[in-house]
Amino acid sequence: MKAAVLHSENEIIYQDIEISECQPNEVKVKVMAAGICGSDTHKMVSKWKYPLPAIMGHEFAGYVVEKGKDVTNVEIGDRVAAIPFIPCNECEYCLRGQFSLCENHGMIGSKSFGAFAEFVNIPAKNVLPIGEMSFEDAAMIEPSAVSLHGVLNIHPQLGDVVAVFGVGTIGILAIQWLRVAGVKEIIAIDISDKKLQDAMDLGCEKSINPLKEDLIKKIYEYTNGLGVDIAFECAGSKITQEQCLLITRKQGKVGYLGIAYSDVTLSEKAFENIFRRELTLKGFWNSYSAPFPGKEWMNTIEFVQQGKIKLKELVSHRYKLEDTQKAFNMMINREEEYNKVMIIPNEELE
């Protein structure tokens, strides 16, 4: 098959590669859409810590084209979304149903070959039927589930005022889920006016561009001097990771979805706010709960099918498989403003 193969940091070669036959418990998926995750691009400018050569791509959907002899849950020709996380089902956390905390998990697209390829072999229990949902929507079930995992576990209340830092894919999905959860007001915070407009179009009441406005002043202006009930950090920036602590009201909550890519040093004021304001800080990792893969995944499928969560509107760019390197260069060098970037390994036949 053809694949976009990673040989070193941001050195991706479009080449032929062998793919094995399905194991008894596996299916082979013909990949029709695969999203580039923000974590993928960060790994290209820091350090790739998994075996090389590698094939990235953990957000994907396609057709089942082959199945192992023990597979009974899907048939050849089924349209499916992939669950990239493979829990060990043996560690203490798996036995508790806390699959996101698994201590010995597999991961399609890093620990094993992923979806920037024409085909992927994956355990049959790691695919979900999608019916008539588009493949691009289905490829975004994974990031939607990540956002929902955070929203569900921060426990927003009716009437809450929430600030969302970073309105890329994860942030804009968090905004939609917060709207479903019944919060009163959402304040989008980003340094891109375009992304802020997208956030307003999808349900935010207010927005702030900290490059143009005093963030702290505007937040307290919007909240009658109290601060927000919940601050959601989705940007993965050490600046916004600290700012969350400066704008949250007494006994408010701070949720961290963005990954830390460098040391975070807190000002005295930010650190004091944690205990003087009795803040609750929570981190959220991955998107899984019991029964696996969890309500984050199943609710995403149901709410997308009902039209309550918008996914296709978030796709800004599409690249053919052979142009995967161009896609990464565009994102890493910020040659254009982008949101979700899709790799299309196989074209639909008319």
Automatic annotation (TrEMBL):
<dbReference type="Pfam" id="PF08240">
    <property type="entry name" value="ADH_N"/>
</dbReference>
<keyword id="KW-0560">Oxidoreductase</keyword>
<keyword id="KW-0862">Zinc</keyword>
<dbReference type="InterPro" id="IPR002328">
    <property type="entry name" value="ADH_Zn_CS"/>
</dbReference>
<keyword id="KW-0479">Metal-binding</keyword>
<dbReference type="GO" id="GO:0008270">
    <property type="term" value="F:zinc ion binding"/>
</dbReference>
<feature type="domain" description="Alcohol dehydrogenase-like C-terminal">
    <location>
        <begin position="170"/>
        <end position="294"/>
    </location>
</feature>
<dbReference type="GO" id="GO:0008868">
    <property type="term" value="F:galactitol-1-phosphate 5-dehydrogenase activity"/>
</dbReference>
<dbReference type="Pfam" id="PF00107">
    <property type="entry name" value="ADH_zinc_N"/>
</dbReference>
<comment type="similarity">
    <text>Belongs to the zinc-containing alcohol dehydrogenase family.</text>
</comment>
<dbReference type="InterPro" id="IPR013149">
    <property type="entry name" value="ADH-like_C"/>
</dbReference>
<dbReference type="InterPro" id="IPR036291">
    <property type="entry name" value="NAD(P)-bd_dom_sf"/>
</dbReference>
<dbReference type="InterPro" id="IPR011032">
    <property type="entry name" value="GroES-like_sf"/>
</dbReference>
<feature type="domain" description="Alcohol dehydrogenase-like N-terminal">
    <location>
        <begin position="23"/>
        <end position="130"/>
    </location>
</feature>
<dbReference type="InterPro" id="IPR050129">
    <property type="entry name" value="Zn_alcohol_dh"/>
</dbReference>
<dbReference type="InterPro" id="IPR013154">
    <property type="entry name" value="ADH-like_N"/>
</dbReference>
<protein>
    <submittedName>
        <fullName>Galactitol-1-phosphate 5-dehydrogenase</fullName>
        <ecNumber>1.1.1.251</ecNumber>
    </submittedName>
</protein>
